[in-house]
Amino acid sequence: MAEQFDHPAADSPDAPRAVRPWVVNPQTGAVDLDRQPLPGEPEPDHFAILGLPQRILLDADAIEIAHRSLIRGLHPDRFHAQGPQAVAKAQSHSSRVNDAWRGLKTLEQRAAYVLTLAGENLDERYRPPAQLLMQVMEANEAIDEAGNDPAARVQLLELLSDFQAQRAVLTAALAQAAASWDAAQAAVDPAAALTARADLRAVLGQARYIDNLIGRASAALSAPDAAYPAN
Amino acid sequence: MAIQISFGGEKRQEKPVVAVGIDLGTTNSLVAYVGPDGQPRVIAGEDGAMVPSVIAFDADGQLAAVGHKANAALLTHPDRTIYSVKRMMGRSAHEIVHELGLLPFQVHTAPGSAAVRIEVAGQKLTPPELSAYVLRELKRRAEAHLGQTVDKAVITVPAYFNDAQRQATKDAGRLAGLEVLRIVNEPTAAALAYGLDKKPEGRIVVYDLGGGTFDVSILAMHEGMTEVLATGGDTHLGGDDFDRLLVETVAAQLERAGMSVNGDAEKLQRLRKACIELKIALSAAEHATVQAELVVGQRMELAFDRSDFETLIAPLVERTLAPCRQALRDSGLTVAQLDEVLLVGGSTRIPLVRRKVQELFGKVPRGDIDPDQVVALGAAVQADIMTTGRRDMLLLDVTPLSLGMETVGDVVVKIINRNSSIPASATEEFTTSVDNQTGVVVHVLQGDRELVKDCRSLAKFVVPIEPLPAGLARVAVTFLIDANGILHVTAKDVRTGREKSIEVKPSYGLTDDEVLRMLEDAFDNAEGDLNNRMFLDAKNEAELILEATKRALLGPAGARLEPEEREEIDGAIAGLAAAVRTEQAEPVRKAQRRLNDATWRLAELSMAEALNAAVHDPQLATVLAQAPDPASVKPDHHGNRIK
Ligand SMILES: Nc1ncnc2c1ncn2[C@@H]1O[C@H](COP(=O)(O)OP(=O)(O)O)[C@@H](O)[C@H]1O
Ligand SMILES: [Mg+2]
Predict the structure, then answer these.
(1) Confidence of residue A109 (pLDDT cuts 50, 70, 90)
(2) Element (H or E) spanning B281, and its range?
(3) Are A31 and A22 in contact (CB under 8 A)?
């Protein structure tokens, strides 16, 4: 019942697989986790596990609802009375649903994930432009000093708000690239898909880089001492 | 056609199995259960609901007391009394000695075992064995209260407990004869208890400051589902630290006044006790004085101002705020999006703590929950969810720490990030770099730091690989964190799809075999447990039979008995009642058989009476008349065909 799915990616030349072969539960639209894939057969992807269409732009509530309704029936706590084997199976199934959900929560994650599914290697390091690099060096210094130097904190605050402004621009750019990708997949348009893919990759690299900076800067500002004890 | 006529006109009811919830605290422990009405209740003993997590032994190393009595022994026999076991659960000898240096216990390790042993009264016991004493006491309490065997429990742990600490807690349960249904995080349990009658939709933060640990969790509740969004904390921060500061300050004052307590374990223990009293008094008053008797017969007065105390502990209270902020960041929420703040743990009674929490979250914390009991109550609710199926509730917890693997350069690569919903899993593929290599060593760590030395080693194991040319063999290893937050590892040959078995030895704590051996060793003692259990079963049955017999005797059937029959029954009743008082199963069974023999005619007469009543009941009579069963005969007024 794979036709339950709305999966434009299937016929795209960008997609490494021609079809999504997994057996789908018609009630939830999600993949049947009981079925063991044959050796060499691809594992179902996160979208299939949650019964969601393979798109970057997805409604956050729809993702939550898909996860919640699946996990309600699969969580091991529900199977305790049925013995250890049922619990073990529930453990394995529910962990896959949780893993899929965790992997699709944000727009950035979904963008990165569809690129990975399309065979993109995202580990390549992003090289920031010279102007950003200057700011990064300043920020690093301010982060080191923020604990005991009020002037450094002020400077870091300024840098942080600048990074946040840059991030807002990137968010808009990412949404646009995501929309083009989704549209290209739906229209089975290989040329458009290729452009969207390059855009996605570029914006995603920058966004991740800035996110990292923002994270470090705000951590340094709100918690001067280590946020976590050594454990 | 079937009418069921039971002896005494009453259906015998089996008591449903009750699974309890246990808050196994550093300082105090509690047990709770959910009654037939669906409400959770804490089980109190003669000395209240809280059982101090203190264990006292006698000079021969036999258990002397657990709880309040053991607490008293802390003063008289500090060398045979053990407390704060929870701080040692799942920890290495190094951690216990260096981080918990203030605990006055001797720590040992044995060759061939990763478990740490604590010396007390001439014995060397592991922390799970020690905790099992507290759990057994709670189990005993619950059984006495409920009048039935209790062998299933949900036990709570600080959300911030790592894999080894959780595993140690589970082992303790097993050693105490409890099947641990689930390890639940304390703040999550608190939220569960809180959410019970309110069915809240919203986001809440639980701030739990107890004796030894600090925990903060941010949760979302919707449609009976309690979802933990983020959790954080500090396993080395709590009321004990406030005590220590106060003891140090007061000791320094005494020293200046020429009354040194240094190096005197007993004096120090007495001072500690007085300081705890002082601290608790300062939660209610701006200024407090307490009587101390550091040397027997020499009373003295200790006085302190709340403001001085607050200055003393302010840096520690401040330290709880960073994990709060971090958890908030991890949850992706802002302060304004939080609906409620719950306070849990005895140390949240301190006004400064309340003020700081209120300041940070911009909300007045709820005051209508008992910070001492709420965790145990929530654990009982979870036990009920898992055993009765009568609640449509589900708890979705997260793992508090990231899981990683060692790679080159002593660096840790994350495989499951902290605050991931559990169960969670990750699969890594391994291959060989040399021809005919037969295995790859995997070192699993837990923690959020970059370097191996800053994270906690969970286990090291070898992934077996077929001897093939380099790079050809492929093994997929799946790391699964179960709903308890405990790690499981499985391996599969990618080419053949065959499962491979891996032996994972924990870096700290007990192996399965060790737990089994301890259980076997404990078998001698278990005879007592078994007797107790058989007695409880027999007693229940006896009580039901006694009640039914007495009722039957009061009815018309009783009046139709011959005097000697009546006499024999009365004798058997008295015999059974006396047997119950022996607290032994065998005499109860014997007396019960005698009563059974004595009452067979009473049973017959009662049955006839019941039947007579039934056929005179117009409603029942119609039912009987219409019964389609061919074996039945229309009842005549004697009703003697119907059995
Ligand atoms: N009224 C109070 N004021 C200050 N501290 C208190 C008060 N009552 C209890 N405590 C402290 O709370 C701690 C015990 O809290 P509890 O939640 O039972 O701890 P745990 O969960 O670690 O066993 C102890 O340090 C105790 O001294
Ligand atoms: Mg507690």
Answers:
(1) very high
(2) helix B265-282
(3) yes
Nearest to A231 among B420, B447, B482 (CB): B447
Protein residues whose CB sits closer than 6 Å to any atom of ligand 1: B 25-28, 210-212, 238-240, 276, 279-280, 283, 345-347, 349-350, 372
Q: What are the DSSP E strand ranges found in B483-604?
A: 487-493, 499-500, 505-506
Question: Chain A residue closest to B402 (CA)?
Answer: A231
CA distance B550 to B599: 11
Sole residue written with tokens 């929490």: B357
Of the pLDDT bands very low, low, confident and very high (cuts 50, 70, 90), residue A230 is very low
Task: Give residue A161's identity as a one-letter amino acid code.
Answer: S
For the cut 60, the answer to whether the pLDDT of residue A223 exceeds it is no
CATH number listed for the domain at residues B20-238+314-395: 3.30.420.40
Choose the CATH number for A1-105 among 1.20.1260.10, 2.130.10.10, 3.30.450.40, 1.10.287.110: 1.10.287.110
Using an 8 Å Cβ cutoff, are B328 and A227 in contact? no
Cβ pair A231:B401 closer than 8 A: yes
pTM: 0.77
Ranges of residues in chain B whose predicted pLDDT is under 50: 1-13, 620-643
According to DSSP, the residues that pair with B100 across neighbouring strands are none
User: Rounded to whole angstroms, how far apart are CA atoms B86 and B78?
Assistant: 18
Q: How far apart are the first and last CA of chain A?
A: 48
Active-site annotation holds for B124? no
Dump strand ranges (E) for B270-410: 287-295, 298-305, 340-344, 394-396, 403-407
* pLDDT digit string, tens, across residues A33-48: 777 766 666 778 999 9
Q: Does the domain spanning B403-520 belong to CATH 1.10.730.10?
A: no
- Alpha-carbon distance of A145 to B192, in angstroms, equals 42
Q: CATH number of B530-633: 1.10.150.750, 3.40.50.300, 1.20.1270.10, 1.20.1250.20?
A: 1.20.1270.10
Q: Name which residue sits closest to atom 2 of ligand 1, judged by CA.
A: B280
- What is the per-residue pLDDT for B418? 86
Residue B198 one-letter amino acid: K
Which residue from A54, A20, A25, A50 is spatially nearest to A37, judged by alpha carbons? Answer: A20
Q: Is CATH 3.40.50.720 what the domain over B239-313 is classified as, yes or no?
A: no
Residues for chain B: how many in total? 643
ipTM of the complex: 0.77
In the predicted model, is pLDDT for residue A126 greater than 80? no
**Most ligand 1 atoms within 8 A of CB, residue of B100, B244, B280 to mutate:** B280
Would you kindly state where each structural domain of chain B is located, as residue ranges? 20-238+314-395, 239-313, 403-520, 530-633
